[in-house]
Amino acid sequence: MKSEFENCQSSKRDENSLYTLTKKFVRIVKNSPDHFVNMSQAAEALNVGKRRIYDITNVLEGLGLVSKWSVNSVKWVGSNMNEVLSSEGEDAASENLSKHHTEEEITLDKEIEDLTNEIADMSQNPSMLENAYITYEDLQQLGIFQ
After folding, report:
1. CA end-to-end span of the chain, whole Å?
2. 83 - beta bridge partners?
3. What is the arithmetic mean of pLDDT over 90-95?
């Protein structure tokens, strides 16, 4: 059974997944005048970093759905946005993806936790601390720096 933390973490990831954010971004474009959007304003509206908006617009541009009009703005040039936003046939695929995504996330979270614990153990082990540094001379002896 998932803990409250895991449920919260998973729901936050689902909420900020590229797929979900892309659908929200397309809705913003759909509701904007002339289907023209400032990416900084979209980032603020979606409460994400501009980098995430650039990821979305780069994918949509690659698909021929948006075109960059300036450094910080895009315009919808693709087909009917309702087709992009429709959920027909999407529920089963989304459920399968979500289930797989969740199992993969659980595995990765466990690996991250294990590695974090190993690093903490190594950094507190006195015998490991003896070798926890490198000198300038050590670096000079490496073949790559010769």
Report:
1. 55
2. none
3. 51
Parallel, antiparallel, or unpaired: how do β-strands 66-70 and 73-76 relate?
antiparallel
Neighbouring-strand partners of residue 40: none
14-50 pLDDT tens trace: 666 888 888 899 889 888 888 889 999 999 999 999 9
Which residues lie closer than 8 Å to 21 by C-beta, 6 or more apart?
46, 48, 52, 56
Query: Is residue 56 a contact partner of residue 65, using CB atoms and an 8 Å limit?
Result: no
Q: Are the C-beta atoms of 28 and 45 separated by less than 8 Å?
A: yes
pTM, rounded to two decimals: 0.51
Under 8 Å between Cβ of 56 and 22? yes
Distance CA 55, CA 49 (A): 10
Alpha helix segments (H runs only) across the chain: 4-15, 18-31, 39-46, 50-62, 81-85, 90-124, 126-129, 136-140
Read off φ and ψ for residue 53, nearest 5 degrees. Answer: -65, -40
Partners of 76 in the β-ladder = 66
